[in-house]
Amino acid sequence: MVATRRAQMVEETRARLIRAARAAFATQGYAAASMDELTAEAGLTRGALYHHFGDKTGLMQAVVAQIDAEMATRLAEVRDRAPDAWQGLLDESVAYIEMALEPEIRRIMLLDGPAVLGDPSRWPSQNACLRTTTQTIQGLMDQGIVQRLDAEATARLLNGAALSAALWIAAAEDPPAVLAKSIQVFRNLATGLLRPAEGAG
C-alpha cells in the first residue's frame, strides 16, 4: 500500500513537471524557459526536477516523448481510417507533414527538439516508426502494389522525406506556402514507388 502510494506520488510529480515544462517550452522556447519559473508553476522545487529528470535536457526528453506518443496515436487513427494500406501510408505521411503547422509541435518537436536532442531521425521513437513503415511497405510489395525494392531502405527514405519536409516547414518564413509545395512533391515522390500497371509504358 505504501509502495503503491509512493509510486503514485512519483508519477504525479513527474506529470506536473512535464505539464509545466511543456507549456513553457511551447510558449517561451526551450532556451528562454526558466527552470525556477516552471518548477514554481508546478508547485515544486528545482531539486524535484533534478531528482526526476536529471536536468533541463532530461525534462525536454520527457516532453518530447509525451508529444511524440500523442502524435503517433493521431497518425495511427489517420492510417486506420484509410480504405487500404497504401492510402493509409500516404495519408499518415501527409498528416505528419501537416502537423508542422501546429505551434506546439513546430516549436518543441521541430525547432527546439533537434537543437537540444540532436537529429530527430535518431530519436528512440523513430525506431518503432521505422519498423511500422517497413512492415507496411513489405506488405505492399508482397501484394504487388509497390515495386520490389529493399523495404527498409524504402521506409527510411520515405520517412526521411516526410521529416525533412516538416523541418523545412517549421523553419520557413511562410509555413503554409511551404506546406503546400511539400505535400505536392511528397505525393509525387511516394507515388513513384507504385508498381506500374501491366502493359503500361
From TrEMBL:
The keyword DNA-binding belongs to this UniProt entry's keyword annotation: yes
Recorded coiled-coil stretches: none
Protein name: TetR/AcrR family transcriptional regulator
Database matches in PANTHER family: HTH-TYPE TRANSCRIPTIONAL REGULATOR RUTR, HTH-TYPE TRANSCRIPTIONAL REGULATOR UIDR
Annotated keywords: DNA-binding
DNA-binding region: 34-53
Pfam families: TetR_C_41, TetR_N
HTH tetR-type domain residues: 11-71
Organism of provenance: Falsiroseomonas oleicola
